[in-house]
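Design job #97: recover the sequence.
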């Protein structure tokens, strides 16, 4: 049997203990321990936070006026930016988020902000596995239903 072993210089010079892939597997019924490192980009955390914030009832949009205008253009070409209005800082085990929202008129602003804070922190913790140390919510505007229609009517009067 020893005669069939690989005899190439590369195979002879590589010690088996140093190989990354020739480690023994765990037995049946045991979890295999896999070594390595996972790095999660800030953009991923921001996207998770943005999606979570949009799910809260009473949130009309995310971001300030300029970001929303650019977002409307992105939406028109089907390239929605889910990180719009979200800024995050990501460490090795912790994350912090700043979220700018527009609240629907009639929704209790403080309750909406509290729900955004809780939803964002929960999503980051559950989906990304980071401890959330802070979620700041900046309420930038209140959306009044029909505002878009009023702008269109004023343009018609001017023509």
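Job complete. Output follows.
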């Amino acid at each position: 049997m020893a005669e069939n072993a690989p005899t190439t210089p590369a195979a002879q010079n590589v010690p088996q203990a140093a190989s990354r892939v020739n480690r023994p597997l765990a037995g049946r019924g045991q979890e295999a321990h896999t070594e390595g490192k996972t790095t999660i980009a800030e953009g991923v955390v921001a996207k998770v936070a943005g999606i979570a914030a949009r799910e809260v009832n009473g949130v009309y949009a995310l971001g300030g006026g300029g970001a929303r205008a650019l977002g409307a253009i992105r939406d028109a070409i089907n390239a929605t930016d889910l990180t719009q209005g979200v800024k995050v800082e990501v460490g090795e085990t912790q994350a912090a988020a700043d979220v700018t929202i527009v609240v629907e008129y009639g929704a209790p602003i403080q309750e909406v902000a509290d729900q955004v804070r809780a939803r964002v922190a929960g999503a980051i913790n559950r989906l990304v596995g980071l401890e959330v140390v802070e979620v700041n919510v900046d309420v930038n505007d209140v959306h009044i239903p029909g505002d878009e229609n009023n702008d269109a009517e004023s343009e018609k009067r001017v023509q």
